[in-house]
Amino acid sequence: MRIAPPRRAAGLAAAIAALACLGPLAAPMNPLEQDLMRVMEPPGARHWLGTDHVGRDVLSRVLAGAPYSLGLALLSVGMSASTGTLLGLVAANSGAAGRAVVMRLADLVLAFPGLLLALLLSGLFGGGVLPMLAGLHLAMWPQYARMADATATSTLREGHVEAARLAGFPEWIILLRHVLPRVLRTLAPLAILGTGQAIMSIAALGFLGLGLRPPTPEWGAMISDLLPFLAEGVVQVAAPCAAIFATVLALSLAGRSLAGSSMPPRVR
Amino acid sequence: MTDALAVEGLRIRDAGGNALVDDISFAIRRGGALTLIGETGSGKSLVALAMLGLLPSGMKATGTITLAGERPLDAADGRGLKALWRRHLMLVPQEPAAALDPIMRVRRQLALAGLLGAKIDVAMRAVDLEEEDGGKFGFELSGGMAQRVLVATALGTGAPVVVADEPTKCLDPERVGQVIGLLRRLLLDGRSLFVITHDRRLAQSLPGQLAILHGGRIVEHGRAEDVIAAPRSAFGRAWMASDPAAWPSCARSCDRSRLALSAHGLSFAWPGRPPLFRELDLHLPRGGILGIDGPSGCGKTTLGDVLLGLRRPSAGSVEWAGEDIVGRPDAIRPMRRRYQKLHQEPAAAFIPGVPLRRQFEALRLVVPGFDALRALPELLDRLKLRHALVDRRPEELSGGEAQRMSLARVLALDPRVIIADEPTSRLDPVVQRETMALLREQVEARGISVVLVSHDASLLRAIADETISLARAPGVPA
Amino acid sequence: MLRALAHRLGQAVATAIALATLCFAAIHALPGNLALQVAAARFGDERVTQEAADRVRRQEGLDAPLALQYGRWMAGIARGELGRSLVSGRPVAEELAHHARFTIQLGAAGWLLSYVLALPLGLVAGFRPGGWLDRAAGGLAVALASLPSFLVGIGLVTVFALGLRILPPAGFRTGAHMVLPALTLALSLAAFSIPVVRDAVVEARAAFFLTYARMKGLGAAAAFLHHGARNAAIPVVTFAALQFTLVIDGFVVIETLFNYPGLGDLLVKSLVARDVPVIMGAGLLVGLAFALVNLAADLLCLWLDPRRRREAEP
Fold it and tell me: What CATH number matches the domain at B259-469, 1.10.10.10, 3.20.20.300, 3.40.50.300, 3.10.310.40?
C-alpha cells in the first residue's frame, strides 16, 4: 500500500464530492419539469433513459439526485467520523470515569438498530434533509468513537509514546503526532464502507417515504414512485437502482482493499 | 550401527533461485544429539522444516534425508517426508502455545495423539506436569507448560528422532534449565535429538555434536566440548567470545561523591498484590554502572519506571541529583530529558512508519538548539551506523541497527542517566557484544550513568560496578 | 459466569428503561402541538377545532405536568399498557402482537435460509482459498452487500413474480407469499455471513495446531473434525447470533416492499400517519428485542468459548 489509507480515503471522498456537485450540472434537462404528454416513454434519442410517470427525464433526475444520495452520505459520515474521533480521543485520554461516560453513551446508541434509529428520527420529524442528517449522524458516531478509543488506548501504551513522554514532549504533541495518525489510518476503511452504508440508508429511507420526499430527485424515492410501473418501464426503475449499486460497490471495494480483508471491519 | 538420521547435501533455494542454505550434511547416531547454532535469519529453522516436508511454498529443497530403517528420501519429496511423521520423526515446534488447540483440554489432546489412559499419566509425570494440568485448556498454558505438553507428546508417540526447533525462543530466558532438563529426558528415553538454537547457554549444556551455521553453510562441526573449547572458524570464535564470562573486565574511575541517581526506602506493590520490592536503597554515582538482576516478573522494569518518575512508588524517595522527585511533577520537569530509557525492543522508541530523520528533527522541540543536520552525522559515526539508514523507517532496520539508533536518540537528548532495560536480550549473541561495547564506550566518553537491567548474571558481572538482585515475586508461575 | 450473566441482564434492563425514556422525550420534543395532532388524526384534518384539541388534551392527560406524564408512561409500560392506536383505536399492545407474529416468522425463515446458503458456500470456498469458487463467492458477497435489501427484493420480484410468474409479488395469504421476502432477507444476510464462514474456515485450517495434529498422527479429516471445525464454529456462531440484529435492521424495508403485514410495515404506516402511540410502542418493542437478542448472543458466546469465560470473570 503505497498511498496511506487516510490519503486514499480523502481522495475518494473528494471524487465522490465532485460527482455529487457536478451531477446536477451534467443533467441535460430540468429534473423537475413535468410533461404529461410524454409519460413513461422508453429510452430514446431525446430521453436517454426514458421518462417517468409524470413525464420527467429520468437521466436528469438520476444525475440531479447525486448531491442528495452521495453528498448527504458523505456529509453524515464526515460528521460522524469527526464526532466519533473526537469523543474517542477524549475517552482514551481521560481517566476511567471520562471513558466510562463516553462508552456508556455509545453503548446506549448502539443498543438500537442503526437504520431504525435514523428512521424513527427522520420519520418523527417529517423527513427532510436536517432530520435525516441528524438521524444518520446520531446512529453512526458510536462505531467511530469505539474504534478511535480502542486504537488510541492501545497506541498510548506503546514504547514510542513512553519515549516521547520521557523526552519531555507535551501531551498534546503526543496525541497529534503519535496517536492521531494511527487512529485516522484505522478509521479510514471504516469511513469508506460507512459512506456506502449511508448511501443505502438514505435510499432506504427515501424508498419508505420517510426521507427526502418527492419531487426531490432522491434515488430511493424515485424507485418507490416508479415501482408500480415496473412492468411498463423496467429501465426507469433500473436506472436509480444501478446508480445506487454502482456507487456503493465502488466504495465497498475501495474500503475492503484498504482494510485488507474479505470482510468489512466489524466494531462489535 | 546405522545412523538414526542422516542428511546429505541439503540445499534450500528461495523462489528467486538464491540458495538460502547450502551443502548441509550431518549424521546423528542412535541415542545421540546434534545441536545446530546460528544467528537469527541464518536458515537454521529452514533445515528443520525441510526435514519435515514443511517448507513454505516457493522454497525448494534438494538433497537426501535418510532415517534408520527407511530408504533415502529426496528432500523435495514432501509427501514421502510427511509419511515419516509420528513413526520416525517428531517435532517440538518453536512456538509451543501455537501447536496446541486453545479450546481443548490437555488430556484430550494427548489422547488424540494416540496415548491411551495410563500412558498419558506416565508421559505427563515424565515432564513434571501435575494431574490437574491435564484438565486445563490450551489457552491457559504458559509457554513453558505448553512445551512440556509437546515433549510429553513426543515421549508418548515413540518417534526415535525428535527435532527441537528453537526451544528457548518463546520462554523466559532463565528457563534454559527447564529446557535442558526436558531435552535430557528425551535422550534418557533413547531418542536421538536434533536441536536448533541461537541460545549460547543451551548449546553449551547439551551433549553430542555441535555444528555452527553461518552464511548458509556449516562452518564448524565436531564434538560439542571440542568446538566450545577451541573454535576454529572465525565466526565460531566470535560466537564463543560473545559469552560475557569471557569479556575482559575493565577498571573505571567514577566519582562516588556525586550521585546522579539515588533512592531510599523504595517500595512498590500493585494494588492487592504482595510488594515487588521493599525498603530498597540505591546509589548511582556519576559515570557509574549499576546492575539490576532478577528473573522475569520480579519487578525490574517497574523499578526502572519508578526511578524514571513514570510511576509512583508505594513508599520511599527517588532523588535526581539530590532532589526528591516522588509525586513532584514540577521538580521533574526541568530535568526530564536527563533521565532516559533504552527499551528492550530495539525499535520501540520510534514511531513506526515515520522516517527516522523526521523523528530526530522533532527532538528540536525538547532539546534547545538541537540541529539534526549537524548533530546526526557525528552521532551516527560514533555508533557505527551508515548515514543512509536515517532516511529509512524504523521497522526496516535490523535489530542491532535499531538498538544503536535508539541509543543515538537517547544520546541526542544529552542525558545524565540511562536506564537500559534488557537492551540486548532480543539481539543475537555476537551483535549483543558489539552493542554492549558501544554502549559502554559512549557512556564513558560522556560521563553518563547507567542502570543496566538484565536477567543475565554473567553480563552484569562483566559490565556493572555493582549489582542489586531482586528476588522473584511470590505468585509468579514457574 | 453467573456474575457476568447478572451484569448483562442488568445492562439489558437499563437499556430498556433508557429507550422508554428516549421514546417519551422524542414524542414530546416533536414540533407541533401534540394534542392538536392527535385530534386531527382522530377527527380528520378539516374538522379539528380548538375545543376538540382541548378535549383530547384532557382525555389523554396531556395537560398534566411532564414528570407525571412520564411516570404514567413508565407505569403503563410495566403493565403492558401502551395506549391505543390513533388510527384503528385498538390497544397498541394488541396491534403489536398481531403484527409481530408475522415478523418473527419472516425473520426466522430468512435467517435460516441465509445459513442454508452461506454454510456450504463458505465451507467450500474456505477449503480452496484463492480458487475460482472462493473468488466467485467473495464477489457475490460484495455485490450483495452493495445492494440495499429493497433492491434485492425488486430484483427477485422482477425475476420470479413478473418474469417467471411462479411466486406472488406481495401481500400475505398463503405460505408462498413468504418465499420472496424471506429470500430477500436471506440474500442480504448471506452477503455478510458467507465471508465470515469462509474466513473462519481458512483461519482454522491455517492454524499451526492443525498441522501439529497431523504430526501427531491424525488423518486430514479427523484433524479438521476434532480441531478445525470446533475452532471455526466459534466466529461463525458468534456472528450468526449477532446477525439477528441485522434482521431487525432489514425487516422494515422488506416488509414495506412486499406489503407484508409485519411490525416493520406497521411502523412505517404509523410514521406516515403520525400514529404516535403505535410508533412509541413499536420502537420500544424493537429496541427491547434488539437488547434481548444481543444478550442471548453474548451468553451463547460465553458458553461456547472457554477463553471468553475467563475474560468475563472479574
Answer: 3.40.50.300
